[in-house]
Amino acid sequence: MLLTTQYLEEADQLAGEIAVVDHGRVIAQGTPEELKAKTGGQTLTVRPTDVTDLSTVTAIVAEVTGVTPEVAQSAVTVAVNEPGVLPAVVRRLDAAEIPVAELALRGASLDEVFLSLTGHRAEDSPADTDLERTPA
């Protein structure tokens, strides 16, 4: 069975094999797990209980990971590849006495795989990928 979709969460749940198509070309294919492994790493998210601690959390995460994290919706997010990052961040947050409302380490999503492979999000596809229409 062939399913075409731009809803990558749907593809992740339903497909046994995925072909990633960008601008009409297949740029990668494999099982959802194989494609996620290509992106490598995981994503660490830290949301402090008190939003005034956000800058300190950002500094801690940046120092531990060596990467400038993204800050959005009162959470700090960064891609990580080292298994020791999570415990190191927890130790630093504990030492700074910063309580957290959310602390998560998760694998890559297919949306992140698509972004990594193409340089743009699936929903940001340029208009030139639409079917060409002839005037009436």
UniProtKB/TrEMBL annotation:
Name of the protein this chain belongs to: ABC-type multidrug transport system ATPase subunit
Q: Which SUPFAM superfamilies does the entry link to?
A: P-loop containing nucleoside triphosphate hydrolases
Keyword ATP-binding tagged = yes
Q: Which UniProt keywords apply?
A: ATP-binding, Nucleotide-binding, Transport
Report the InterPro entries cross-referenced here: DrrA1/2-like_C, P-loop_NTPase
- Note the Pfam families from the entry: DrrA1-3_C
Q: What is the lineage of its organism?
A: Bacteria, Bacillati, Actinomycetota, Actinomycetes, Micromonosporales
Keyword check for NAD, yes or no: no
Give every Daunorubicin resistance ATP-binding protein DrrA1/2-like C-terminal domain span.
30-117
